[in-house]
Specification:
The protein is of the alpha+beta class.
């Protein structure tokens, strides 16, 4: 059953431009590694609260490690707001 991954976090306002570059590189990395195209959203009225959306993810066993490797190699933790962390949620369609 295909899954949907949602990853949300706060970026440091002064590092937002760098964060956009790194997330764009992450989306490209994940697409090459897993075949899953992700997209980036920001919360309305909270421009530094971001969410990456990856769907559909047909193979969670290979997707999860690819995403983690990209985050690590691209230094995504370095652009987060102080005290922030990447939060990941995974959902499935119960009607599929």
């Amino acid at each position: 059953m295909p899954l949907s991954y949602y990853v949300y976090y706060r970026v440091a306002p002064e590092r937002a431009a760098l964060a956009r570059e790194r997330v764009a590189a992450l989306l490209a990395f994940v697409a090459r590694a897993s075949g899953v195209s992700g997209r980036l959203l920001s919360k309305r009225d909270e421009p530094h609260l971001w969410m990456e959306v990856y769907e559909p993810v047909p193979d969670a066993e290979s997707f999860g490690p690819a995403l983690a490797r990209g985050v690590r190699e691209l230094g995504l933790e370095e652009v987060l707001a102080p005290g922030a962390q990447r939060n990941q949620e995974c959902f499935e369609d119960p009607c599929a």
